[in-house]
Amino acid sequence: RRAKRDGLGIAVFNPQDRASVHDRLLLRGELRTALAQGQFLLHLQPKIFLNGGPGGSGGPMGFEALTRWAHPERGMIPPDRFIPVIEVSDLIHPFTLWVVDQAVACCARLQAVHPGVGMAVNVSARNLLDGHFPGQVGDALRRHGLAPALLELEVTESAIMADPARALETLHALSALGVRLSIDDFGTGYSSFAYLNRLPVNALKIDQSFVAGMAADTDMRAIVRSIIEMSHTLGLMVIAEGIETQETLDLLRGMGCDVGQGYFIGYPAPESSAEDWLRDH
Ligand code: C2E
Ligand code: MG
Ligand code: MG
Ligand code: MG
Q1: Are the C-beta atoms of residues 245 and 263 closer than 8 Å to each other?
Q2: Which residue intervals define the domain EAL in the entry (predicted)?
């Protein structure tokens, strides 16, 4: 019976499927249980300085915390298969707080291996509409004794555009705590530099679709180059995600990109691997 249910792919959301309301409710219930029973875990993906940075380029900047669901029967489930369902339910509030708490605790532990190493967490649109969120982030930082500047929150342009006025209020409150803010998947949304200039953000992450296309496509390369230049004009740090080859890394470094992330630098992995990676760098 279990196999049949799995074969039908009922309980795991696939953006391509038009899952029934019943399936969605089933999955939502399972996700609630997953959070209560500790079935989620964080994998950490390293980011390195491509230019500048303490200790010169090539040094570790920090990690991005990426959540996985260790499902008791179906094994490891990637975030694209369950985050979209969490995001449209109230579960997104306790879920994101759990991720923030775990990521902050982990970052505090990693200070013993590499002082100053940072941690980034992905935040959803609904978290930006929650007036309690900044205070709760502040609580997590105090509880684990982590300097706020070592925590980075990644938000997408579309998450901000869902309700720009309220999102801006939350972003200002988070910024006032001293945490760093970055725009994730930059280039896939509205991408107005004029608007970006009004946001209290520190960094911009160039979407991996641009980065992946850079080596072979000179137009992509020109786009990436101008994103980097405009960001620097606005005083923003630039992070390139999805670096898969030495060639792409060298191109980005040559363009003055500040920070790099991608499989070529390191895969998302459990905390123990992140510690090993830090010791090797
Ligand atoms: P993202 O925040 O843009 O994260 C980058 C994604 O690209 C990650 O996928 C990462 O594993 C993948 N990636 C990194 N380097 C490379 C590369 O060189 N090549 C390729 N092809 N991919 C690379 P992942 O872990 O499957 O996460 C997917 C998305 O799920 C994330 O995109 C983020 O939007 C969301 N997500 C993950 N964890 C959380 C979370 O705790 N909360 C929220 N709200 N969203 C999350
Ligand atoms: Mg991200
Ligand atoms: Mg991204
Ligand atoms: Mg993404």
Answers
A1: no
A2: 24-281
Helix axes of 92-110 and 271-280: crossing angle, nearest 10 degrees: 40
**Which of the listed residues 82, 100, 122, 152 should we mutate to test ligand 1's pocket, taking the one with most ligand atoms within 8 A of CB?**
122
Q: Is 218 helix (H, G, I), strand (E, B) or coil?
A: helix
Residue 203 · residue 183 · CB < 8 Å: yes
pLDDT recorded at residue 280: 92
Per the listing, tokens 């970006």 go with 196
Average pLDDT score, the chain: 92
The complex's ipTM?
0.98
Give the tens place of pLDDT for each residue, 200-233.
Answer: 999 999 999 999 999 999 999 999 999 999 999 9
Establish whether residue 217 lines the binding site of ligand 1, counting it when its CB lies within 6 angstroms of any ligand atom: no
Structure tokens belonging to residue 181: 């803010």
Furthest C-alpha separation in the chain: 59
Asked whether the whole model's pTM tops 0.90, one would answer yes
Contact 200, 178 (CB under 8 A): no
Closest ligand 1 atom to Cα of 99: 41
- Whether 105 contacts 151, CB under 8 Å: no
Alpha helix (H) ranges present in the chain? Answer: 2-7, 21-36, 83-87, 92-110, 133-144, 157-161, 164-177, 193-196, 208-213, 218-233, 246-254, 271-280
Which two tokens mark 223?
């786009």
In this structure, are residues 215 and 247 in contact, taking their beta carbons and an 8 Å threshold?
yes
Check pocket membership of 101 for ligand 1, CB cut-off 6 A: no
Task: Please give the distance, rounded to the nearest whole angstrom, from the Cα atom of residue 191 to the centre of ligand 2.
Answer: 16
Query: Residue of the nearest CA to atom 2 in ligand 1?
Result: 122
In the structure, what pLDDT confidence band is assigned to residue 1 with cuts at 50, 70 and 90? Answer: very low
